[in-house]
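Q: Please design a sequence for this.
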């Protein structure tokens, strides 16, 4: 991120001497207030990308002013705080929480280096099927949209209703030069709403319509629309494993993380007990 030199050269030259013998660890001081320093590097890191020269200068001035005011307000508040002990306790608790969270994330990342096996995922799915239900109608199949002027419409009518390899192969080759839109989704579940939105009509009861019409052909003034519904999962049904796979992986991963951290805490506790590092004073009373 580049700052216009005019914004800083004068400030840096004028203020660098303010640091005296302070070790700035390679940073360039811009402002000092009662021993607290604002550095050029910190200002640059906070500045939005793409500002004009004028906006950069304005941001710099406002940022420095706010930083100075914050330092002064903190000093005033610190000297007048009514319960310094409570504040210190809150700070210590927050610091402990941050450190523990960072360490736990590090441990979890190490634990997740091994992929969950298909066997684990399938077993978890079988044990928890009721958790994985369809919240919107899902379908598998094929969709193609072609201009009415395209040749070979009668062949499309035959091909799109079949999922055998030969029909699909012919339809895919045909779509390369003729189709306006083509979606092959025999191998994955898609929300029915996404496919139905591509058709030139509205459906009052889409789920019922799809149940009763697995081979759909519609047209408007310019195009033919073909949708073959090979399989359907209705709202409220238990998802198949392939439909629930991503959810299963996430749920099992979260469970393993929880169990892993519980075991880490237990191991730490038991080790500390064996080493007699824990003393319960209340048990002596």
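A: Design:
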């Amino acid at each position: 991120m580049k700052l216009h030199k005019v914004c800083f050269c004068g400030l840096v030259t004028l203020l660098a001497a303010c640091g005296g013998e302070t070790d700035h660890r390679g940073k360039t001081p811009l402002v000092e207030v009662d021993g607290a320093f604002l550095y050029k590097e910190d200002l640059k890191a906070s500045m939005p990308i793409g500002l004009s020269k004028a906006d950069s200068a304005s941001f710099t001035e406002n940022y420095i002013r706010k930083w100075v005011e914050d330092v002064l307000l903190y000093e005033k508040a610190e000297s007048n705080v009514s319960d310094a002990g409570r504040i210190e306790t809150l700070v210590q608790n927050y610091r402990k929480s941050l450190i523990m969270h960072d360490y736990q994330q590090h441990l979890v990342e190490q634990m997740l280096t091994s992929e969950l096996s298909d066997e684990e995922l399938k077993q978890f799915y079988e044990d928890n099927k009721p958790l994985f239900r369809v919240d919107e109608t899902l379908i598998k199949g094929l969709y193609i949209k072609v201009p009415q002027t395209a040749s070979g419409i009668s062949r499309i009518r035959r091909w799109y209703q079949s999922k055998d390899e030969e029909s699909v192969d012919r339809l895919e080759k045909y779509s390369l030069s003729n189709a306006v839109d083509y979606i092959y989704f025999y191998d994955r579940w898609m929300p029915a709403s996404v496919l139905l939105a591509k058709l030139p009509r509205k459906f009052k009861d889409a789920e019922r319509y799809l149940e009763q019409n697995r081979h759909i052909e519609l047209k408007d003034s310019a195009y033919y629309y073909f949708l073959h519904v090979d399989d359907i999962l209705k709202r409220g049904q238990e998802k198949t494993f392939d439909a629930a796979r991503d959810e299963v992986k996430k749920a099992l991963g979260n469970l393993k993380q929880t169990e892993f951290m519980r075991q880490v805490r237990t191991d730490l506790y038991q080790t500390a007990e064996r080493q007699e590092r824990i003393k319960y004073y209340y048990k002596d009373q």
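Q: Thanks. Anything notable?
A: Residues 5-80 form one domain. DSSP finds ten helices and six strands in the chain.
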